[in-house]
Every structure is written in structure tokens, then in C-alpha cells.
Amino acid sequence: MPEIKRPNYFTSEFLVAKDFQDEQAYHRDMRHCHNRLLHTPGVVNGLEVKTDDNKLFIVKAGMAIDQNGKEIILASDTLPQPLNLTATGGIYVTIEYKDVTDEQDKDVTSGLLNQYRRITERPLIKTTTSQPTSNDVVILLAKVNLAINGNIINIEDMRTFASAKINNATLNSIVKKAGDTMTGPLTVNANLQVTKGAIIPSVGNTEASGIMFPKDPGGGTGDAAWLRYYSRTGENTTFEIGTSNNSDDHIALMASGNVGIGTTDPKYKLEVVGDIKASSIDSVKLNVFGDLYVDGNIQVKDDTLAAMILRKRQYHGIVDIDPNMPLIIHLCFESRLHIPKTIKLFLRGSLFSRAFYTELGSHTHQAAAQSISLNHSHGHNFSISSISDHTHAINVGNTGGAGKPSDHNYGGSFPSSLGGWKSGWISLLTCLTGETAAYWVSSSGSHNHSLSGGIVSNLGDHQHSITVSSTGASIQAGTQSKEYFSSLQLLVNGQPRTDSLLQLLNGWREIGNGSATHPLITSGTGVLDITSLVPQEIGNHELRFVVTQGGGKLQYNIFCE
């Protein structure tokens, strides 16, 4: 440590800027030395970190002393400012000493450049993802815990307050040597910090034992509070937490978790391992797990017992849900006795099958074309439009005999192909049959006819080749047969409550993201207290769970009590 020097002014001394700077440095250094040697670093007062909204924070005005003894003074509350960092482990807010020069303090008369007439001691507030160590010159103020979406979940106060140091010299003035006992009261006007060892108060059941708190903090007389440990008889001891004076003096256990009696791992807000004896129980909420033994009468005060029974109800199930098929639950509070004190909710998602018809009305199917043989008996009609030249076998016989013209009569003339033979044939026929201008042929001879168009009748059993086809829409195959839903939304009586539900799900950005790895699928939401989301009023209240895309199965449990 260098020698301490201070300016020594005298008449007619020529002073320069350094003389005045040395003057200021002397006083600052002596003050910092005092702070450093006689006080521990920390907050003197104020400097609380508060949230202005879900994403901004402010630091309240206050003062601190760093490990170099420098005073850090924040003259007024800061403006709301963003954290500008993301971290799942939290963000630390610190404050440190800083000298700054402001433009309005810049010298404009001397002609010198960048000279300032004043220096401002304005602290610097920083945010970091790493917790500062005891060797840092910064003062740790708070830890801000963030959700995945960047919203502030809560702010942990991590201020350590500055206190007086009891060094060896000071301690020797109080206690001369180890084992000595100090007589008389010791008043400490700051925090008393014991870094090693334990605080061991005396035992006994009087005001001179244990830990006593200042009496009458609110005025009046007779108010007191204490912690005592004493022997009742022999080895039977009692640890006593007590208050005195009147029934309005309370003892409250403000545990953020659970309180256990007879157990170090309580699973409920209050868990007692053993028997409970009470002269009276006046509560609108009594849960009994196991047997209930009553030695005497049960007296119902007002509607207490009725309310306990009416308020208890449970809704549960597993449903398919998609954008067109929401889950709707109605909570009906018929009277004030039905209005529950608490409403608990649990949700969990799972796979949902898309293999179902979405339209069961008129639709078509695509069939492949094919030939079908059909055997049946039916008639056909066929007409002959013309007969070309043809031949017949001539059957010569007697009039009236077989093969005469009545069997196969043909009116007309011989074909022109007979040429000059036609007259000879006619004469021959006339001579043989005695008939003229007509001729006949055998009915059983072989001949041909040329037919065109018409209807054929009575053809008997035969076959047809039939082609069957259809047109229209076809069955469409989906891209996948199962899926998970995305972005489950909650509406209570038609009002959006998804953001409020997400605040209960620390770190969740959305309720389901369409994948199997989302916490909704892997473990569910856990038990959520949604009492504040449902109006505590008589009537019907609708809880509607909807999704904007995808589909899935949703397991739900709602317990009212």
C-alpha cells in the first residue's frame, strides 16, 4: 500500500488541475479504504429487481458497496429494459461502479478538445448467463428465470447485504482469548454473518434462553415471539415456537413446497405421519385418506359437510380430437355449494388414427374394365332387306308331291345368268309339271342368302361379351395413418385462456407441436391448478379444447373439490 499523501495548500501557491485531482483522489481513496476494511461488499439498501411486464425488468433505486469499497449509487429507478439474452438456466442481473462523461458537461470555453467539467458516477447494470463469483467487482442483484418463449417466469432475489466486519483486532477487544465469555448485551446494527461454525443459543424455557425477537413490534404491550429448546423431564425435550399475548398473534409456515410432521419427504401441503387429535375442526375442506374414526358426534356447521360432498366431482376420458372435432367439457355449478374451491387439470396426448371415412354420403369407386360371359335364353328378330342372285337345286316331281312349289315357292324369273337357256328351261318345266309361269326348288337343298340389317328372333341359348366400367372419384390414400395434434387451445366460456394455461406450464411455448417428443406426449402436463381460469359463479361453464391442425388422442382428468 503506498504512502498516503494529501495536498497542502499555502498562500500564493500556484495551483494546477492535478492539485485539485489529488485532493479529490485523497478523499475518495480514504473513503474506499474505510468501506473495504470495515464492511463486507453488498447492497446497503434498495436495488430490487422487478418485472415491468413479461419481458422487461427494472432496478429500483438504492446503494451498494463493491469489494474495492466503492459506493455504487443508483439515484432513481431504471427505465424498463429487455434482457437481450436467452438461457434455460436463468439470467443474472448485476450492478457495478462506473465513471461516465455526459455531453452536456463538455467544456466549450477553454478551446480544448474533449474536456469535461464534470464526471458522473453512474452505475452500470449488466445481464449475464454466468453467475458472478466472489472475486468479481460486480454486485449480484437477482436471477431472472425465463420460459422458452422468453417471458419472465419469476425473479429470485439474490442480493447480499453489506455488513460490518469483525476483524481480529475488533474481536480481541470483545473477547480476549478463546473460551472467554462476554457479559452484557451485544448490539449489531447490520447483518450478523457466521461463515464457519454454528450459532448456539442457550437452552431453557425462559426469556433468557433461545432466540427472542423484539417485543411489541406493532405497539401495545405483551407481544412477544421466541424459539426455545428445553427439557421437559429428563431426556424428554421440546423445541418450541411461540407467540404471546392474544389470539390475533399468529404463527405461519410460509412454505413454497410441502410441510411434513413425522416425515422429511411430505407429498401434500401438510402431511402428518401419526395421529391427529383436535378439540374441533372447522373447515370447508377435509380430505380423509383411509379410515376416519369419530369419538362423538359430527356437527355440520352451516353447509360445510354438504359443500364438501357436492363440490367433489371428477371428469376424465380419452377422446379423438382434430380441427373439426373439439373436446367440450361443461362444469355446471347449480348453487354456491357446487362451486369448487380448487379445479385441477391433467392433459396428455397420444397417437390418433386417420384411417376413417370423412364422408359417408354419395361417392363412387373406380372399377377395372373386364369381360363377362352371360348365358341366357332370349329372342332376336331379323329382317332381310334384299336377296341377290342365288341358286336352288331343282326338284322335279308330280303336282302335289314332295318338293312342289307349295314347299318352296319362288315367284319371278330365272336369273339372267341362264342366258338363252331360260326359255328352254321354262318349256322343260312346263312339260314336266304341267304348270307354267312358276317353278319350285327342293326345300332341303343347299343355298346361300345375303342378309343386311334387321332383327333376328328366337335364336335360343347363346353368349354375349359385356364390358363393365364406371367413372368418378376414387379412394384417396392419406400421407400417413397416424399423427399427433399441434397447438392445443383452451377457451373458457368462449374466451381464450391458452396464454394463462401456458404460464402454468413453465417453459412450454405451445401445448403440442405435432411430434412424439413434445412433453405433452412423453409425460403430460402434470397436475395444474386452473381454479383462476374458471369463473367462480353459479351457472354452466364451458371448457373447450381445440386444435388448429393435425389430430390426436387427448387424455384428460379434471378434479373439482
Automatic annotation (TrEMBL):
Q: What is this protein called?
A: Uncharacterized protein
The major lineage groups are: Bacteria, Bacillati, Cyanobacteriota, Cyanophyceae, Nostocales
